[in-house]
Structure formats: structure tokens, C-alpha cells
């Protein structure tokens, strides 16, 4: 296991932006845990994170102190999430009229036993089976092809023991969409799949001044000219192929070809929206996507909806590389705080990469996994350099990291 003597170089500038949200002792815990999360090779339990910090680390605390920081310290993980968004907007130099996406979905974590808050029996559509575990409503902020994880909020199944029950739709709006603050004049678009496409949620988003792009189910009824009403798939079946337009978009670095048809339609209790019917000849799949912003072209609507896949990428990579679901904690608030630290590490590494891009040699941009490996190697070099200084050994010209790079190590 890599041992660190301080927060890795890539994280420090980012973490300093959060210092005012904590007391001094709590900020030290925040910095220590984020640093350990970025390099820990084992499951990201508090015990393993604490063990990742070298005993000689300045200010290292006991495991119980880090547990207390997550469970009882006076700080707000929602403020941390909002600060990440503010930094993201600043880092991308987003201005008035720029578009920013808030992508909503949910994910599961299988758990044994019943000691953890929120554990229950859920149907996991990705596995097409029931699982026993936790269910989280999750979100990602995306713009200009880059994204950061935003929030994860635990869902409780309704029961006699559940106080102040909220549906997943209510959690998405009350705890993620409504509290999100973006600069005045910026176009915030809420993106989700057909499961979330309720009239109530869409109207709440519209009332906040946000637009919505989402898929609707094939049996959803749409109206034309306040006279005719069809299930959307019936309408699609009546459209001649010659009326579909070939549309090519870039999706995650690859070109995809769609055949699209657009029409302004009326959806009961929502009003007029732009409907885009899209087909792909390769797999024959037809999708029905609506946009409350009727000025968007079919290409823009399809591109925005394709960006919804970023949240699936986030679920996978954050779990594999940063231990999003490694928590061995029981309390809802403690778990959500832990997850927010994981999300903060992702943002820190992404921002550092933006400021220090790899050489333009024609190779593909680094994946998040490769970025995290860079952080680990950097931390290892920093630890070796600390040891050399501790024993009063001469540090090579250019620093130890320079020497390691000369040996061919990618740092």
C-alpha cells in the first residue's frame, strides 16, 4: 500500500478552496481523507484510509477522529457540492447564455444485513433482478464535454419506520435540482431518462426557469393542434421514412448517425414541447425525446440526451477507482458525506488535469483511471523524497520526480 505524508500535489490547490467551509480541525480531516482516497489501493473504509496516511504525517489523527468528522462534525456536504459547481463553472470560464447540464439518475449498492440506513429490497434494472442494498439518487454536472459528480442522496423505501418519506422524484427536485445555484443568465438544462419524466417534476423544473431534455415512453400520449392525440409510437409509425433527416453527432469521441423527425406537440399537464423521434439503422432502436426549450435543433436535443451517459460513466469509474461504494458506515448523513468527499477527489483530479494537460502527441486524452494512477505515482515520489530529506540524503538535481521520469516512469 502507498503511504502518504501529505495530500498529493494535484489535490492541494483544489482543496484549499474549501477551507472556509470548515473549522480548522475539520478542514485538516477533510484534506487528509481526500488525500488518502486518491491513493488508497484497498477498499476505501475509514480504517484503510487512516492506514494510508503515514504515521509521520503531520497532523495525522486517530481513526475515531476521522469517523467523528464524517458523522458529527459541523459542516455541510451540500455546501461542498455547491462549491464544486462554482469552481467547475469558473474553471470552464462559462458565461451568460452558456449551457450547463444537470443529469439525474440513480444507482445501487448491494449490502448484507439491515444495520445500514436505507437498506432494502430493490429492483436493479441493470441486472434485471432484485438486490438487497442501498439506492441513491445521483447527479452529474456537465458542460463543454467535461463533467463532475455532484450529489448522491439516499432513498428510503416507504414504511412505518420511515419518517418524512420522499419519493425518488421528490429527492431529485428537493435535494438536488432546486438547491443548485448557477450564475444568472446561464442556461441550466435538466436531463434524465424516461423513468423520471413525470409531469410534476418537469413542471417544477420549468417553474425554476430551467429547461428539460428527457426521453418519454413509447405509450406517452401527445397532442397535435389541440385536436388529435396519439400514443407517440403510433404517431411515429405514421411518418414516412422520407421525412426523417440524417443527423450526425459526435458522441464521446465517436461519430454516430441518427435519422430524426421533429414536431412541436402538446403533452397533457406540461404544454407544448419539441418532440424529436430518433432512429438508428444499426440497431433499429427508436427513441422519443422531448425538450421544453423548443428553440433547440434535433441535433442539439440528441446531443444533450446522449450526454446523459456521462452519469453512467461516473457511476462506474468513481466506484472502480475511488471507492464510491466502499463505505462501511451506517448512518445516512455519514454515508452521503463520505460520498461527497469521493466526488470532491474526482473534481480535484480533473481540474488539475485541465491545468496540466498531457503533451499533444496525437494520443487520446487520459481517462480518469489513468489520471488517478498519475496521482498515486506522484504521491509515491513525494513520499520517497520525504524519506531522503528526513535522513539528510541529497535530493537529485531537479528533484526525485524528475529522476523517476528519466527512468521512463509516467509521472
Task: Describe the SSE topology.
Layout: H1 12-15, H2 24-39, H3 46-52, H4 63-71, H5 77-91, E1 99-110, E2 120-124, E3 129-143, E4 146-155, H6 168-177, E5 187-192, H7 199-207, E6 211-216, E7 221-224, E8 228-231, H8 232-237, E9 245-251, E10 254-267, E11 271-279, E12 286-291, H9 298-306, H10 309-322, H11 332-355, H12 368-390, H13 400-406
Parallel strand pairs: 1-5, 5-6
Antiparallel strand pairs: 1-3, 2-3, 3-4, 6-12, 7-8, 9-10, 10-11, 11-12
Provide a quick synopsis of the model.
This is Transposase, IS4. This protein is an alpha+beta fold and 411 residues long.
Keywords:
ten-stranded mixed sheet, alpha+beta, Transposase, IS4, RNaseH-like_sf, single chain, IS701-like, 411 residues, Transposase_ISC1217, 12 strands, 13 helices
Radius of gyration (CA) equals: 24 Å
Low-confidence residue ranges: none
Distance between the termini: 18 Å
The level of helicity is: 25-40%
Mean pLDDT value: 89
Helix-strand category = alpha+beta
DSSP strand count: 12
Order of helices and strands: HHHHHEEEEHEHEEEHEEEEHHHHH
Please tell me what the overall shape is. Answer: globular
What profile does the largest beta sheet have?
10 strands, mixed
The quaternary organization reads as single chain
Q: How many DSSP H or I helices?
A: 13
Strand content: 15-25%
Descriptive account of the structure:
The chain has 411 residues and is an alpha+beta fold. Among the domains are: 12-75 and 330-365, no CATH class; 369-406. Helix content is 37%, strand content 24%. It is built from 13 helices and 12 strands. The protein has helices spanning 12-15, 24-39, 46-52, 63-71, 77-91, 168-177, 199-207, 232-237, 298-306, 309-322, 332-355, 368-390, 400-406; strands spanning 99-110, 120-124, 129-143, 146-155, 187-192, 211-216, 221-224, 228-231, 245-251, 254-267, 271-279, 286-291. Strands 1, 2, 3, 4, 5, 6, 9, 10, 11 and 12 form a 10-stranded mixed sheet that branches. Strand 9 and strand 10 (254-267) form a beta hairpin. Helix 5 packs parallel to helix 11. The longest helix is centred in the last third of the chain and has 24 residues, at 332-355. The radius of gyration is 24 Å and the shape is globular. The two termini are 18 Å apart. The model has no long low-confidence stretch (mean pLDDT 89). This is Transposase, IS4. InterPro entries: IS701-like, RNaseH-like_sf, Transposase_ISC1217.
